[in-house]
Amino acid sequence: MHHVLFNKVIDDISEDESNKIIAQPMNSIKWLAGHLLWAQYNLAITGGVEIYLPWRDHFYTNAGATDADRNAGTSEMPTLQMIRDKWNEDTPQIRAGLEALPDEALNAVTNAKHPISPFDNTLGGKWAFTNHHQAYTIGQIGILRRGLGKDGMKYFG
């Protein structure tokens, strides 16, 4: 579902629009889309899938950053289309990894950080928090698209 909604919520957003800050201290659509891509890496780890994560230096948050994020070096800022393409390239692999997880793996304790109870420190808790985070961030992009004068995201069509 998040794969479909991510693509729909950034439909018809131009590169210039993706960089606009509608009001301080809000983020731009591009930053939120890149942040979703960065957070998608957590689902790859959860599913045991190795993906290359470009542009991580632009889109992580201090609270959720790993040493790999902080030490990634400097990259050129991608376009919104590059972010979308990378999302669409990685999603099938990530989904296959998640589908292959045995049920008992969800109860495995991890060292994953997340800020909200009742999510526990299991792989299932990490997955649940990441899903919430994706929905929340896609919703933020939906609000920003309306702030740009665009129609709301379409679920159908």
Description:
Helix 1 (2-9) runs parallel beside helix 7 (123-147), helix 3 (29-46) runs parallel beside helix 6 (80-99) and helix 3 packs antiparallel against helix 7. With 157 residues, the protein is mainly α. It contains seven helices and no strands. The two termini are 15 Å apart. The radius of gyration is 16 Å and the shape is globular. The chain has helices spanning 2-9, 15-19, 29-46, 56-59, 67-70, 80-99, 123-147. The mean pLDDT is 91.
Order of helices and strands: HHHHHHH
Using the CA coordinates, give the radius of gyration: 16 Å
Strand content: under 5%
Number of strands: 0
Question: What does the average pLDDT come to?
Answer: 91
Keywords:
mainly alpha; 157 residues; single chain
Short synopsis of the structure:
By secondary structure, the chain is mainly alpha-helical. It contains seven helices and no strands.
How is the topology of this model organized?
Blueprint: H1 2-9, H2 15-19, H3 29-46, H4 56-59, H5 67-70, H6 80-99, H7 123-147
